[in-house]
Amino acid sequence: MKRVLLSAAALMLAVAPATVVLAQTAAAPVQQQAHSRLLPLEGVQNARDIGGYRTADGRTVKWDVIYRTAELSHLTAHDRGLLEARGLRSIHDLRTVEERRAQPTVWTDASAPTVTAFDYSMDTSGFATLFQGGMPTADRAREVFAASYPEMLKSQRPQQRALFEDLLKGEGAVLYHCSAGKDRTGMATALILSALGVPRETILADYELSNQYYRPDASPEAVAANPQAAAFMQLPADIRAVFMGVDKRYLQAVFDMIDRDHGSVETYLDRELGVDGADIERLKSLYLV
């Protein structure tokens, strides 16, 4: 049983898509737009346009320039054509080297966008200790997940820095993703929308949209092909739901850390990523209308 729990812990931290589909609580309401937030991709989960949100100064984030998704290993010809038609120029893969090897993005066309990724491994020790005393409660799992977020943010600084450097070029549409498109991708989205001046309440609501749009493959074939997924299926439903969904308290833990240690997201961006006030004004000129 201990081996099952540790295998499940490793899977949950990686949040690999080949796991069970869970019924999730609907996210908080966000501004409704005529433009579709969900990208009509056939082989990609949780694919969303982050445009359309109003900023504190009354402007709006542009559509069709910044996309967030889950992993891209099942892109279809239709998907590649759609993204090419939307002017996709670059992809930022936020996953570990192990995740990229397990589910590689294959896009070899001459018109393929550039891909930026960093070789690193994820620290799973916090999640392994969660199961050492036996099966935790769902509330305890949420506490551990929330506690992991600030450290996860810090571990993603090289990826965040490269993403902002790319956005500052303003040379075409940019897409970034992790495995499920909810945790590392959610934090990156929070930083981008904060830099653009989107209110925090709106950012938290956008973050929780992953509860609606992330639906992993639950087929017997998919589960059988992934031993970790099989271990995950043995966990109680309420524990699975915690790790396959999102809760605004997780992202709020990141904001709390930034506010405590830096005073504001703008100061965090300047100190940790080298994105200063002039850069933020450029981002607003590029991505707001």
Automatic annotation (TrEMBL):
It holds the Pfam family Y_phosphatase3. One of its GO terms (molecular function) is phosphoprotein phosphatase activity. Keywords: Signal. SUPFAM superfamilies: (Phosphotyrosine protein) phosphatases II. The keyword Signal applies. Residues 1-23 form the signal peptide. Belongs to the protein-tyrosine phosphatase family. This is Tyrosine-protein phosphatase. It comes from Brevundimonas goettingensis. The lineage of its organism: Bacteria, Pseudomonadati, Pseudomonadota, Alphaproteobacteria, Caulobacterales.
